[in-house]
């Protein structure tokens, strides 16, 4: 694809839309393998690989949302084959998807036809208190609360040492993020949220409506912050319908 920032799990279809996926804090591109396989071959799913994890683990992670969004807006040119595309971001990834879309619109560059914003409340002028973690112990406590990492990682010192730099950087990034006022995006939003998310209420997620000049739909699933792990098929169907394609039931 001509960029270190994107991963594709499978062969790209000859036509059809593209879905660019932005992982959560501490997450990697592989988090979207199940969704990619479910949407194939109707949708070309491309996942963002942030520096500092998996095959980019030797690179220093980026601890600033603005710098990440700036770079991702630049890197989108590596995917520019005139294929229509949408963004899907989960948790911290939702903020990055939104901020990257803002930068593309500001540059009058081709932008996403839709934003799928998952597991995150709408931006505010001050950083979210849920993202204020100052020590490694606080980071790990936050991850346990969200249910996003298997217990084996916490028990294995080598694995923990491998993932902590990315986790620290991501929580510094999202912990310092505050929305810079600007015009609503001219892009429809689809907001997805678990009904038992410990850090985001349905009402907070619904507040994304104020950030789009187009229509915003809100979909509530049973489950917590990582509801997507248990509703991949339903989310895939929702994405496919919004993008105007048909997937094969598996």
UniProtKB/TrEMBL annotation:
Belongs to the thioesterase family. The keyword Hydrolase applies. The keyword ATP-binding does not apply. One of its GO terms (biological process) is lipid biosynthetic process. Residues 20-243 form the Thioesterase TesA-like domain. Keywords: Hydrolase. This is Thioesterase. GO terms for molecular function: hydrolase activity. It comes from the Bacteria. PANTHER family: S-ACYL FATTY ACID SYNTHASE THIOESTERASE, MEDIUM CHAIN, THIOESTERASE.
